[in-house]
């Protein structure tokens, strides 16, 4: 096991009705806050009114910023940071899915940062330059990105056609409220995309050349089984509390550091390729991942790593067999069929994407060098995987 | 899933050589500390010198208290609290196994508490009375109790022949250094006992009437598989780093809240029975657990809960079959055989315990009412299980 620091201080308040604690939790950190959200859905379902009520009960002053996009834009981050500076706000409270929380982290960082976080953090990856930030907190309404318990943020720059991530320990939310009932209204399409996103986070960490990481693999298999068990239930019956709860908590645990701490390597090539797709076409992240993942698996599979696929087949799907490659191919097919069962398409053509930007995307994905670790993917490899997925 | 708060702020520094950070980590919280340890083993293996060196480099003032017993005594807690008050110490740093860390928590609590923690917390279980404590930190040298990431403490009172636990969120260590190489010198007997203790913590949470807890069960199965895979390796080859590392991290994750958060119920009857054994006979906790666990399983098994044992058989041991009760009995036998393979005996007679104090122990174990949830055990049930284990 590799040396690691595990430091996950986010206080999670999980379950039906936990929003009633939001005022008290905020009060521990701030008296004037930026309330950040996306479109009007939280006003329609009553969550907005509840949040305002419980914040007001604790005399929290609130400045609002709404309209965060599904792929949150750096312009919104700048607007939010201006508001925080102008009003001396002390905390950014995101109410929404991963996009809103990612945007809140951008705002929290930019508010205290003298340079431009897009250039220094997202593009140049100089994460160490960020030494302070406003505290971030969240009320999660969509299980997918894990942003509610980690310091990661992915932002989009439409002018540059780029979607880039950064991360910092100081951006881990101080608290996150996870109420599964808020995800009852998530539609089938987003429920499926969220489930794929969670599974992809696990695949990116599970599939690696790391010869060790036994404990981490066993935990990830447990989380994969949880999503595979409950995603079809939530898909068919959106108000099944237990399904929504298991998926929501699995999502947070899949990307809060628990599953990667101690691993020698992780992959993340599929995410980097997908970021190119959603930067160019603004598609739903989980759908892009669902299309690309099985092709990536087929492309990287070789005799060095076939045991990883066998382990996945045995321990997650109960698929066994004498021929390792046949078992591996079976489980890749099984994975694609599972995504299809949630109406996730199998090809880029299905979602209206043609090959016209493949070369651009392959160039952009590998601009800092080869991506991934299971197999190091260069320009031609990325181009090949995109072409397979056509 | 039941509503829960997950709040595990302990910063874990894991891996070979992390002790070099102890001074810097302490400095964040304190400049004068109590250094608490057990016998002379940390002086023999050089750890004591290293700790002193790295603390001194950061100008930390140190008052020492050594001689913590394997079942830490309330008298040591009182002595430590007197030292902390007298010298205005600001943090208690435990260097040792779970006993030393438990003792450090007792000292940290008693120092700031005006009453007697033995009476109010251990005996009367009025945990809410504890509102402040010194910060606790640890350098772990034995993987077993999970004390390094939680707020639990178990103390012994030899005058009253009692071993009682208490817990408080405010006693969770601010940081813990987990270096698997410190466990290389743990002998076979303690290595086996530690592995059983970790597995027992998982059993106490895994086996419950809780109809839900899917995610939690899958994670616990992963942790059980990890201990089952690596305990025999560490037992045979005490300096196998990866075995020691996986066991150490599994130990922390098995009792830091991760596996119980969201569960509707847990059991803990076996632990309560074992505390009677080690209070009366001062035996090693993990050995007591290893003897009692299979008998407890046999005693509580019934048609309401047989599915739990089948799940355990299928997912942890790969034991399948058509008859649920046969599968359950097979996996109980398998569990006992596994313990035996680590030279953990199967009966109380094997460790020199006769039935003379069984009635006392059964009375004491159930003094606050029935124990456990899989089956609520009253006086006569505890007596029966102890008799089966004879």
UniProtKB/TrEMBL annotation, chains A, B:
Pfam families listed in its UniProt record: ADH_Fe_C, Fe-ADH
Chain ranges of the Fe-containing alcohol dehydrogenase-like C-terminal domain: 191-389
Family annotation (InterPro entries): ADH_Fe/GldA (IPR001670), ADH_Fe_C (IPR056798), ADH_Fe_CS (IPR018211), BDH-like (IPR044731)
GO cellular component term, pick one: cytosol
Keyword Acyltransferase applies: no
A GO molecular-function annotation: methylglyoxal reductase (NADPH) (acetol producing) activity
Superkingdom of origin organism: Bacteria
Occurrences of domain Alcohol dehydrogenase iron-type/glycerol dehydrogenase GldA (ranges): 9-180
Keyword line: Oxidoreductase
Segments traversing the membrane: none
Name of this protein: Uncharacterized protein
């Amino acid at each position: 096991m590799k040396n690691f620091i595990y430091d996950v201080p986010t206080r999670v308040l999980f379950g039906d009705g936990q929003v009633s604690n939001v005022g008290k939790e905020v009060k521990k950190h701030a008296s004037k806050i930026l309330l950040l959200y996306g479109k009007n859905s939280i006003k329609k379902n009553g969550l907005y009114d509840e949040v305002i009520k419980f914040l007001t009960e604790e005399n929290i002053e609130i400045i609002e910023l709404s309209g965060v996009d599904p792929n949150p834009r750096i312009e919104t981050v700048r607007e939010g940071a201006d508001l925080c500076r102008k009003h001396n706000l002390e905390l950014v409270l995101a109410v929404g899915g991963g996009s809103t929380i990612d945007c809140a982290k951008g705002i929290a960082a930019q508010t205290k940062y003298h340079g431009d976080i897009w250039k220094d953090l997202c593009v140049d990856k100089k994460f160490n330059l960020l030494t302070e930030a406003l505290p971030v907190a969240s009320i999660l309404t969509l299980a997918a990105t894990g942003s509610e318990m980690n310091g990661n943020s992915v932002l989009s720059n439409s002018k540059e056609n780029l979607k880039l991530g950064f991360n910092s320990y100081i951006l881990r939310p101080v608290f996150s409220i996870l109420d599964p009932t808020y995800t009852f209204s998530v539609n089938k399409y987003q429920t499926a995309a969220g489930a794929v996103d969670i599974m992809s986070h696990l695949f990116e960490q599970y599939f690696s050349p790391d010869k060790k990481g036994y404990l981490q693999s066993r935990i990830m298999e447990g989380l994969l089984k949880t999503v595979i068990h409950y995603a079809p239930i939530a898909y068919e019956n959106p108000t099944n509390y237990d399904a929504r709860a298991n998926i929501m908590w699995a999502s947070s645990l899949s990307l809060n550091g628990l599953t990667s701490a101690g691993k020698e390597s992780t992959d993340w090539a599929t995410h980097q390729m997908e970021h190119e797709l959603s930067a160019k076409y603004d598609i739903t992240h989980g759908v892009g991942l669902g299309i690309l993942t099985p092709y990536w698996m087929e492309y990287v599979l070789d005799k060095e790593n076939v045991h990883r696929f066998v382990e996945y087949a045995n321990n997650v799907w109960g698929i066994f067999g004498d021929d390792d490659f046949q078992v591996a191919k079976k489980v890749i097919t099984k994975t694609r069929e599972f995504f299809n069962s949630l109406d996730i398409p199998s090809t880029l053509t299905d979602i209206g994407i043609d090959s016209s930007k493949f070369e651009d995307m392959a160039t952009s994905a590998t601009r800092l060098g080869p991506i991934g670790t299971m197999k190091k993917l260069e320009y031609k490899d990325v181009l090949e995987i995109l072409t397979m997925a056509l």
